[in-house]
Amino acid sequence: MKTARLSLRIDERSDAIVRRAAEQSQVPVGRFVEDAAVHAAERVLADRVHFSLLEEEWDAFVALLDRPVREMPGLGRADAAWDRHFGDAE
Q1: 34 vs 15: CA distance, rounded Å
Q2: CB contact set of 79 (below 8 Å; sequence gap of 6+)
Q3: Which residues have C-beta within 8 Å of that of residue 34, sequence separation ≥ 6?
Q4: CA distances from 76 to 1, 30, 71 (A)
């Protein structure tokens, strides 16, 4: 069930283009705009999560991930300091 509402103002030229595209797609304008907005939003958000690398860059990335774990005592101290100042975050 759709309950959220989105309102926007656009110029006449943009309105005409959107309406024509919706008509050509045989979908209501609201559905056309929603689909286009969601698609654009997913692209923006995916860019924050997914990335692509050249093969040699990928190999270097995987090599870094496969390195043995190393001790980082300073990180433990920082975590303890965080807990003292801000309490347990969980």
Answers
A1: 14
A2: none
A3: 6
A4: 47, 52, 9
